# Entry
Amino acid sequence: MKSRSIEHQFEFWTHIGQVGGYMYQFDEYTATRPYKETWPSKVFTFKNTNIANLKHAILKSYVPNAIAIDSIDPLNQILIENGFKKTSVVEGMSLKVTSNMVFKKSVNISEVVDEKGINMFTNIASEAFGYSIHTTAIMGLLKDDYTQLFIGKHMNECVSCGILFLDKKGDSGLHMIGTKKQFRGLGIGKEMTQHLLYNALKNKSKNVHLVASKFGAPIYRKYGFVNKGYLNSYIL
# Structure
């Protein structure tokens, strides 16, 4: 059974690609290709995939050389057998919302409402995650009804970021939670997580989803998130 948390992740990428005008739907898969191949350049949601066609599309630069796939998909083994290299594994996690849950809203965190905020968000996120995020990739989210972008401050300096996405099933997802390196270890990431969960409850979501690295997963387990599978990434 496919992971609901990973399905949510794919829907998030599809949505921001649609809003940003860089989502491409092919017969065999979905691809997002923002300006200059910055985040989130991905190929995902595979069906009846011809590996020869996929390799040709990547080699010709028709689609990004970045594959994301549920770990239980049989295509994983086929990719490996055809020369694809696994680059990362992240954990799909979900939280079932209960009536007694309480999360803190932070006065240090504000929602992005203008282009200046978008520029600040991409600067923070690019530094926090170590890869390029162009403003055009998320500019369309300013007027989006399903996505909220947040920036957190510490000592009057903007140092953290996070995204909350409401999917078609009414579930919320936590995305792009990051903190500038020099401000880590101060509880700023936890503060952003609490703030996003507070807003997820405002969405009246019955479930909240995210994907986490092996370092982040233990932190989210403390909030009640449980494992729902793994998301593998490959390059050719």
